[in-house]
Amino acid sequence: MKIVDLRSDTLTRPTPAMSRAIAEAEVGDDVFGEDPTVNKLEAMAAERLGKEAALFVASGTMGNLVSLLAHCGRGDEIILGSLSHTFFFEQGGSAAVGGIHPRTIPNQPDGTLPLPEIEAAIRADNVHFPRTRLIVLENTHNLCSGYPLDADYMQAVGDIARRHDLKIHVDGARFFNAAVALGVTPDRLAAEADSISFCLSKGLAAPVGSMVCGSQDFIAGARRARKVLGGGMRQAGVLAAAGIVALTEMVDRLADDHAHARQLAEGLAEMPGVSIDLSQIKSNIVFFELRRADMTVEQFLKMLDEGSARMLPVGVGRIRAVTHYHISAEDIDYTLSVCAKILKA
Ligand SMILES: Cc1ncc(COP(=O)(O)O)c(C=O)c1O
Predict the structure, then answer these.
(1) 171 ligand 1 Cβ < 6 A
(2) Hey, whose CA ends up nearest to atom 4 of ligand 1?
(3) Whose CA is closest to atom 7 on ligand 1?
(4) Does any ligand 1 atom lie closer than 6 A to the CB of residue 9?
């Protein structure tokens, strides 16, 4: 029996077209710059995001880390959201590996950092202070229900960055979800970013890999950082081949995932003891709270699992469900019927 697994969009398996592309990939040594498939993927990614160059990396975490290492030196400060993946879920890698100091600002429910708070966090030139170098944003914002940051907000942050001679990095693990949800082209949404990382291995369904995009100079720095982290892969074209299919065939269909997330959220909102803000649901991530005296989150998720559906506990009383390539409208109906039985809706 199928398990409707909504824990994450990282669970996606390669499509048949990806498997064929992997089997037939033309490869070379990518550390020598000689893997034609990696080179093709990097050129495609740069073009899609309107940047000069791109770099294929092993993961979203590595994409963010090489970006931060390329922008900042030891003792430099970055401004980022208190709920950002980079701050929360990446082992503090930029501090641990790069000596980069994090300055957090509370994320708003829509994933933004308030503009006055960004401006207030920028350090004056003073011997006591670290130097502010970089503003890090996340689009879509994972812990803020996959909310997308729009082009107007990006421009407003860009204005601040220009005034203070700062750079902007976007953790765009689900950047194409943001572009599809907002109905804007990825290059327009990326225009204010000096660097941007996005994942091939989430909603785009490739088995492995992320891309980092930016200027030629920035990518040269990111490439050096990737090497010192042990991320210089050799015949990586076998992985990049799936990434090319991801960019070519898997972007437009993200709209289906967003529709399924809304279907799920609207169904859950009807159920007793479920607290959910429907205005938050803009892409493929659904967060809700279970407020039941008779049932813990763990008990609910266990019963859900016994009914062949899965979601993820994230934080106290919160549950996350993420739609993706392997989840259909029927799967959502099925999941809602299991939830209704458990919650006796
Ligand atoms: C917003 C965000 N950034 C970065 C990452 C890290 O990606 P990876 O798991 O490929 O390291 C994730 C993973 O879930 C994410 O949600």
Answers:
(1) yes
(2) 60
(3) 60
(4) no
- CA-to-CA distance for 339 and 337, rounded, in angstroms? 5
Q: In angstroms, rounded to a whole number, what is the distance separating the alpha carbons of residues 273 and 255? A: 29
Cβ–ligand 1 contact at 342 (below 6 Å): no
Q: Point out the ligand 1 atom lying closest to the alpha carbon of residue 174.
A: 1
Q: 24-65: per-residue pLDDT in tens?
A: 999 999 999 999 999 999 999 999 999 999 999 999 999 999
- CA 146 – CA 58 distance, rounded (Å): 22
Specify the residue for token string 């064929």.
20
